[in-house]
Design goal:
Layout (H helix, E strand, L loop, with lengths): L3 E3 L6 E3 L7 H22 L16 E5 L3 E2 L5 E2 L2 E9 L2 E6 L17 E4 L1 E5 L3 E2 L5 E2 L2 E5 L3 H12 L8 E6 L11 E7 L2 H7 L10 H4 L5 H7 L23 H4 L1
Antiparallel strand pairs: 1-2, 3-9, 3-13, 4-5, 6-7, 6-8, 9-12, 10-11, 13-14
Amino acid sequence: MPVDIQNAETGENTPKNPWLKRGDDSRKALAEAEAKTEAKRAEFGKAWRFMINKNKCDVDHEITFLDGVLGEDGLLNLPTFWEHTLYWNGRWNNYICTDETDPCPICAGNHSPSFVGLLTVLDHTPYTTRDNKVIVNEKKLYVPKRRTIKALAKAANLHDGSLVGCTFVVSRTDENSASVGDVMNFKEQRTLAQLMKTYETDDVSPLNYDEELIYRSAADLREMGVGVSVSTVGGPAPGGSQAGSSDLGDQL
Protein backbone atom coordinates (compact mmCIF):
# COMPACT_ATOMS: atom_id res chain seq x y z
CA MET A 1 0.00 0.00 0.00
CA PRO A 2 1.28 3.49 -0.81
CA VAL A 3 2.02 5.65 2.19
CA ASP A 4 0.37 9.07 2.37
CA ILE A 5 2.27 12.02 3.75
CA GLN A 6 0.54 14.37 6.18
CA ASN A 7 0.82 18.08 5.47
CA ALA A 8 2.16 19.70 8.65
CA GLU A 9 0.23 22.93 8.05
CA THR A 10 -3.18 21.62 6.94
CA GLY A 11 -3.16 18.21 8.56
CA GLU A 12 -4.38 16.69 5.28
CA ASN A 13 -2.90 13.56 3.80
CA THR A 14 -1.36 13.77 0.34
CA PRO A 15 -0.16 10.83 -1.75
CA LYS A 16 3.51 9.99 -1.48
CA ASN A 17 3.66 9.91 -5.29
CA PRO A 18 1.06 12.42 -6.55
CA TRP A 19 1.99 11.64 -10.15
CA LEU A 20 0.78 8.05 -9.67
CA LYS A 21 -2.99 8.00 -10.25
CA ARG A 22 -5.33 5.57 -8.50
CA GLY A 23 -9.06 4.89 -8.30
CA ASP A 24 -11.28 7.65 -9.70
CA ASP A 25 -8.25 9.78 -10.55
CA SER A 26 -6.82 6.93 -12.61
CA ARG A 27 -10.07 6.41 -14.51
CA LYS A 28 -10.38 10.16 -15.14
CA ALA A 29 -6.78 10.29 -16.42
CA LEU A 30 -7.50 7.36 -18.76
CA ALA A 31 -10.56 9.13 -20.20
CA GLU A 32 -8.54 12.32 -20.76
CA ALA A 33 -5.74 10.37 -22.44
CA GLU A 34 -8.24 8.66 -24.76
CA ALA A 35 -9.78 12.02 -25.68
CA LYS A 36 -6.36 13.48 -26.52
CA THR A 37 -5.49 10.43 -28.61
CA GLU A 38 -8.73 10.71 -30.59
CA ALA A 39 -8.06 14.40 -31.17
CA LYS A 40 -4.61 13.57 -32.54
CA ARG A 41 -6.06 10.89 -34.81
CA ALA A 42 -8.55 13.43 -36.17
CA GLU A 43 -5.68 15.81 -36.97
CA PHE A 44 -3.88 13.14 -38.97
CA GLY A 45 -6.95 12.86 -41.20
CA LYS A 46 -6.66 16.46 -42.34
CA ALA A 47 -5.49 17.43 -45.81
CA TRP A 48 -1.86 18.44 -46.20
CA ARG A 49 -0.95 21.95 -47.18
CA PHE A 50 0.71 22.60 -50.50
CA MET A 51 4.09 24.14 -49.78
CA ILE A 52 7.43 24.08 -51.57
CA ASN A 53 10.36 22.99 -49.44
CA LYS A 54 12.91 25.78 -48.96
CA ASN A 55 15.61 23.34 -50.09
CA LYS A 56 13.79 22.73 -53.38
CA CYS A 57 13.08 26.29 -54.48
CA ASP A 58 14.19 25.67 -58.07
CA VAL A 59 12.08 22.51 -58.46
CA ASP A 60 8.93 23.01 -60.54
CA HIS A 61 5.63 21.88 -59.04
CA GLU A 62 2.47 21.53 -61.11
CA ILE A 63 -0.85 22.35 -59.42
CA THR A 64 -4.46 22.77 -60.56
CA PHE A 65 -6.93 24.97 -58.70
CA LEU A 66 -10.37 23.63 -57.83
CA ASP A 67 -11.84 26.93 -56.62
CA GLY A 68 -11.13 30.65 -56.69
CA VAL A 69 -13.54 32.96 -58.54
CA LEU A 70 -13.45 36.74 -58.75
CA GLY A 71 -16.27 38.70 -57.15
CA GLU A 72 -18.00 41.68 -58.73
CA ASP A 73 -15.46 43.92 -57.01
CA GLY A 74 -12.62 42.18 -58.85
CA LEU A 75 -11.30 40.58 -55.67
CA LEU A 76 -10.77 36.86 -55.26
CA ASN A 77 -13.63 35.21 -53.39
CA LEU A 78 -12.05 32.92 -50.80
CA PRO A 79 -12.28 32.25 -47.05
CA THR A 80 -9.71 34.21 -45.03
CA PHE A 81 -8.40 34.28 -41.46
CA TRP A 82 -5.39 35.33 -39.37
CA GLU A 83 -2.71 32.75 -38.62
CA HIS A 84 0.47 32.46 -36.55
CA THR A 85 3.43 30.40 -37.72
CA LEU A 86 5.72 29.49 -34.82
CA TYR A 87 8.89 27.47 -34.46
CA TRP A 88 8.05 25.34 -31.44
CA ASN A 89 9.15 21.91 -30.21
CA GLY A 90 11.70 21.70 -33.01
CA ARG A 91 9.33 22.32 -35.91
CA TRP A 92 7.19 24.97 -37.57
CA ASN A 93 3.53 24.94 -36.52
CA ASN A 94 0.48 26.90 -37.68
CA TYR A 95 -2.06 28.24 -35.19
CA ILE A 96 -5.23 30.18 -35.96
CA CYS A 97 -5.19 33.51 -34.14
CA THR A 98 -7.90 33.54 -31.45
CA ASP A 99 -8.11 37.33 -31.18
CA GLU A 100 -11.49 37.42 -32.94
CA THR A 101 -13.08 35.66 -29.94
CA ASP A 102 -10.51 35.66 -27.09
CA PRO A 103 -7.31 37.58 -26.37
CA CYS A 104 -4.67 35.58 -28.23
CA PRO A 105 -1.76 34.34 -26.06
CA ILE A 106 0.47 34.27 -29.13
CA CYS A 107 -0.28 37.91 -29.96
CA ALA A 108 0.46 38.66 -26.30
CA GLY A 109 3.99 37.46 -26.98
CA ASN A 110 4.41 40.21 -29.61
CA HIS A 111 4.07 37.76 -32.50
CA SER A 112 1.98 39.22 -35.31
CA PRO A 113 -0.30 36.88 -37.29
CA SER A 114 -0.46 36.77 -41.07
CA PHE A 115 -3.60 37.35 -43.12
CA VAL A 116 -4.16 34.21 -45.21
CA GLY A 117 -6.75 32.72 -47.53
CA LEU A 118 -7.88 29.21 -48.39
CA LEU A 119 -8.07 27.47 -51.75
CA THR A 120 -7.89 23.86 -52.90
CA VAL A 121 -5.43 22.49 -55.43
CA LEU A 122 -4.52 19.16 -56.96
CA ASP A 123 -0.80 18.65 -56.47
CA HIS A 124 0.48 16.75 -59.50
CA THR A 125 4.01 16.32 -58.13
CA PRO A 126 4.44 12.68 -57.05
CA TYR A 127 6.12 11.62 -53.83
CA THR A 128 6.79 8.26 -52.23
CA THR A 129 5.69 7.42 -48.69
CA ARG A 130 7.77 5.46 -46.20
CA ASP A 131 5.92 2.28 -47.16
CA ASN A 132 6.85 2.88 -50.83
CA LYS A 133 3.41 4.05 -51.92
CA VAL A 134 3.48 6.68 -54.69
CA ILE A 135 1.07 9.58 -54.12
CA VAL A 136 0.16 11.88 -57.01
CA ASN A 137 -2.66 14.29 -57.89
CA GLU A 138 -3.38 14.71 -54.20
CA LYS A 139 -5.95 17.28 -53.09
CA LYS A 140 -4.29 19.84 -50.81
CA LEU A 141 -4.96 23.07 -48.96
CA TYR A 142 -3.44 26.09 -50.66
CA VAL A 143 -2.92 28.87 -48.09
CA PRO A 144 -1.75 32.11 -49.74
CA LYS A 145 -0.86 35.34 -47.96
CA ARG A 146 -1.93 38.80 -49.09
CA ARG A 147 0.64 39.36 -51.84
CA THR A 148 -0.07 35.96 -53.37
CA ILE A 149 -3.83 36.51 -53.11
CA LYS A 150 -3.44 39.69 -55.17
CA ALA A 151 -1.33 37.86 -57.75
CA LEU A 152 -3.94 35.10 -57.98
CA ALA A 153 -6.67 37.68 -58.56
CA LYS A 154 -4.70 39.05 -61.53
CA ALA A 155 -4.24 35.53 -62.87
CA ALA A 156 -7.97 34.79 -62.53
CA ASN A 157 -8.78 38.01 -64.39
CA LEU A 158 -6.87 36.64 -67.38
CA HIS A 159 -8.95 33.46 -67.42
CA ASP A 160 -12.58 34.54 -67.42
CA GLY A 161 -12.46 35.58 -63.77
CA SER A 162 -11.79 32.10 -62.43
CA LEU A 163 -8.89 29.94 -61.29
CA VAL A 164 -11.05 26.80 -61.42
CA GLY A 165 -9.38 24.23 -63.64
CA CYS A 166 -6.27 26.40 -64.15
CA THR A 167 -2.99 24.50 -64.02
CA PHE A 168 0.19 26.38 -63.13
CA VAL A 169 3.83 25.38 -62.89
CA VAL A 170 5.08 27.01 -59.68
CA SER A 171 8.41 27.44 -57.92
CA ARG A 172 10.12 29.70 -55.38
CA THR A 173 12.66 32.42 -56.10
CA ASP A 174 14.51 31.67 -52.85
CA GLU A 175 13.89 30.47 -49.31
CA ASN A 176 12.53 33.90 -48.28
CA SER A 177 9.81 33.90 -50.95
CA ALA A 178 6.23 32.71 -50.51
CA SER A 179 6.21 29.07 -49.44
CA VAL A 180 3.38 28.33 -51.89
CA GLY A 181 5.57 29.66 -54.69
CA ASP A 182 6.08 33.15 -56.08
CA VAL A 183 6.79 32.14 -59.69
CA MET A 184 3.62 30.95 -61.44
CA ASN A 185 3.55 30.00 -65.10
CA PHE A 186 0.13 29.27 -66.57
CA LYS A 187 -0.09 25.95 -68.43
CA GLU A 188 -3.75 25.33 -69.29
CA GLN A 189 -7.34 25.62 -68.09
CA ARG A 190 -9.71 22.64 -68.15
CA THR A 191 -13.29 22.08 -67.11
CA LEU A 192 -14.08 20.02 -64.02
CA ALA A 193 -15.41 17.29 -66.31
CA GLN A 194 -12.08 17.20 -68.11
CA LEU A 195 -10.23 17.01 -64.80
CA MET A 196 -12.37 14.07 -63.66
CA LYS A 197 -11.65 12.23 -66.90
CA THR A 198 -7.91 13.00 -66.91
CA TYR A 199 -7.30 12.02 -63.29
CA GLU A 200 -9.94 9.26 -63.15
CA THR A 201 -11.78 10.69 -60.15
CA ASP A 202 -15.27 11.89 -59.31
CA ASP A 203 -14.00 14.17 -56.55
CA VAL A 204 -12.86 17.54 -57.86
CA SER A 205 -14.80 19.61 -55.35
CA PRO A 206 -12.96 21.99 -52.99
CA LEU A 207 -12.10 20.78 -49.51
CA ASN A 208 -14.51 21.46 -46.66
CA TYR A 209 -12.57 24.22 -44.92
CA ASP A 210 -14.70 24.14 -41.77
CA GLU A 211 -13.59 20.54 -41.27
CA GLU A 212 -10.00 20.85 -42.44
CA LEU A 213 -8.84 23.67 -40.18
CA ILE A 214 -7.78 22.92 -36.62
CA TYR A 215 -8.90 25.70 -34.26
CA ARG A 216 -7.47 25.78 -30.76
CA SER A 217 -8.97 28.14 -28.22
CA ALA A 218 -6.83 30.57 -26.26
CA ALA A 219 -7.18 28.27 -23.25
CA ASP A 220 -6.03 25.28 -25.34
CA LEU A 221 -3.00 27.19 -26.57
CA ARG A 222 -2.03 28.21 -23.05
CA GLU A 223 -2.45 24.63 -21.83
CA MET A 224 -0.14 23.47 -24.62
CA GLY A 225 2.42 26.05 -23.56
CA VAL A 226 1.97 28.05 -26.76
CA GLY A 227 2.06 31.75 -26.07
CA VAL A 228 4.27 34.46 -24.68
CA SER A 229 6.96 31.99 -23.66
CA VAL A 230 7.25 30.41 -27.11
CA SER A 231 10.41 31.23 -29.05
CA THR A 232 9.67 32.49 -32.57
CA VAL A 233 13.27 33.05 -33.57
CA GLY A 234 16.35 30.93 -34.01
CA GLY A 235 14.68 28.18 -36.01
CA PRO A 236 15.13 27.34 -39.67
CA ALA A 237 13.09 29.20 -42.25
CA PRO A 238 9.69 27.54 -42.75
CA GLY A 239 9.03 25.79 -46.02
CA GLY A 240 7.60 22.58 -47.36
CA SER A 241 5.46 22.28 -44.25
CA GLN A 242 2.01 20.97 -43.76
CA ALA A 243 -0.45 21.95 -41.09
CA GLY A 244 2.07 21.51 -38.35
CA SER A 245 4.87 19.81 -40.29
CA SER A 246 8.21 21.30 -41.26
CA ASP A 247 8.80 19.57 -44.61
CA LEU A 248 7.46 16.94 -46.95
CA GLY A 249 9.28 14.24 -45.03
CA ASP A 250 7.04 14.91 -42.04
CA GLN A 251 3.99 14.20 -44.18
CA LEU A 252 4.99 10.70 -45.20
